TrEMBL record:
Ranges of the DNA-binding region feature: 38-57
Span of domain HTH tetR-type: 15-75
Record flagged with keyword Protein biosynthesis: no
Species this chain originates from: Streptomyces flaveus
One MF term in the entry's GO annotations: DNA-binding transcription factor activity
PROSITE patterns to which the protein is assigned, alphabetical: HTH_TETR_2
Keywords: DNA-binding
Protein name as it appears in the record: TetR family transcriptional regulator
Xref: Pfam families: TetR_N
Keyword Transmembrane helix appears in the UniProt entry: no
InterPro entries referenced in this protein's UniProt entry, alphabetically: Homeodomain-like_sf, HTH-type_TetR-like_transc_reg, HTH_TetR
Amino acid sequence: MGHHGWGGRPPASDAEARQRIIDATARCIDRHGVTKTTLSDVAGELGVTRQTVYRHFGRISDIIGEVAAQGAESFVDLMIAHLQGITDPAEAVVEGMVFCVRTIPTEPRLSLLLQLGDTTAFGRGATTRETIAYGAKMLQRFPVDWAAAGIDEDDLNGLAEIIMRLLTSLLQHPSEPPQDETRLRTFLHRWLAPALSGTSASAHPRS
């Protein structure tokens, strides 16, 4: 691990070095924007060589992905706090989606996911196994008794996938003119919420 530069404070571990690179990248993005931030910018921010950064990340997009992922973790915590007290599955999912549509574009780190193209959680990556599994894990944190609602682990994976597909569309291709929250909530209650009503009877249709 390179100990030159680093503002005179070399990192004590690889994990600390990676985090400092991520933090420096976030500062560069704030200053230059995501499309104009380069590995050279990050290296200069840290006072190290490009090769030092390369030891920890192969591409600038990998670092930006980590910046976005850390923003996502904080965002999920905020969303779960927002949903406290909403125990109905349909209501929780609708309010969670409204919260996402309202908040994601205003969250600097999280909005990076919308700017990185098809490799991100809101591009083609929205339907990867890993992203769906993360979405299902997020749903498990909702203040909802999924089992009592007849929604098992496989159902949560399916629900996570359809939510990611819908969010991708709502965020990247908003209605024209844009829907306000009331109209969006009405739309989701009309077309999404019914899928979460009477789930135990309809989740597994007869073949």
